[in-house]
């Protein structure tokens, strides 16, 4: 098997003047990001809701899944490519949406998009970006003001050449993110939410910069009820959150506004997966928002089997939340996922080295996935199956077959 090499980045020096080695795992990149980023920025991206049980469970559930390696399989060539929506990708890994990426490093969303393009994969662009959607896609090469704003963004996305609309469905209100409330994040004067026209400062004028203002996420965290959040939203037009969305009033409206594929992100039950298909979703993303919304929910890898069973191959099933290793991607594919997304991992790469840092993250995951496939005995994505997994028994010794 040919080993995928990691690109050597410009050497960094430690305090004693010695050169530091480049990180070779996502865990190392996370440690470096925590050291580098301001506390309020780190807390915003790294924290989970309430006591962060869901955040921890996303990781621990992957760790409970064990691999059952098979031997004497021809793995002289390992093919990590997959096809989704008729497009072939060299790896079954893309990048999840994350807000305000220029807070993390480099050129933010533009660097993220360039990295995804350079590795032949895809990126989901958040509506709460610090770069316009037109700039990002060029990088690689009144009754309801929210809906009016959404329609404008959809029209711009379609005109700019985007391929799908990903609707996040698990944020009627924001989760109770304790660390974010203690260390509130504010946008500095030179940044704005470019896609929804929040204007904090015009750097082309000589006007004195406005004081940095709290993000809308930070303001909405103080809402005690969905109704109060809706009232705040109506008075501030820099958010696309809407607590009134339903199956009946959302999907038909969205379909009337676009011919793009519609992907629903935030599905956690078989019941909602079936409703998504019934209402015309082209794909679903099994996601608990990285543990940032509702605490005490299962991990995504735990609910994946019931959702895959309900969907029965009618639409692609994508998964995110908790994926930090190539072996995690393998486990998700073995349980029936068609594609995986990483969010925080890509951000830690962005913090480390902009575009090259994100490329490094994708290279690490590809190398780990390829090695895992070879060691378990799968020469291609199609050869990965449920029989290659076991689960650690909660009582007693050994593993249970899945």
UniProtKB/TrEMBL annotation:
Region (Disordered): 1-20
PROSITE patterns for the chain: FMN_HYDROXY_ACID_DH_1, FMN_HYDROXY_ACID_DH_2
Binding site for FMN: 97-99, 126, 168, 265, 287, 343-344
InterPro entries: Aldolase_TIM (IPR013785), Alpha-hydoxy_acid_DH_FMN (IPR012133), FMN-dep_DH (IPR000262), FMN_HAD (IPR037396), FMN_hydac_DH_AS (IPR008259)
Span of domain FMN hydroxy acid dehydrogenase: 18-394
Cofactor section: FMN
One MF term in the entry's GO annotations: oxidoreductase activity, acting on CH-OH group of donors
The keyword Flavoprotein appears for this protein: yes
Active site: 289
Residues reported in the UniProt entry to bind glyoxylate: 44, 177, 289, 292
Pfam families the UniProt entry points to: FMN_dh
Keyword vocabulary terms for this entry: Flavoprotein, FMN, Oxidoreductase
PANTHER family assigned to the protein according to its UniProt record, in alphabetical order: 2-HYDROXYACID OXIDASE 1, S -2-HYDROXY-ACID OXIDASE-RELATED
Family: Belongs to the FMN-dependent alpha-hydroxy acid dehydrogenase family.
Identification of the protein by name: FMN hydroxy acid dehydrogenase domain-containing protein
Annotated source species: Blastomyces silverae
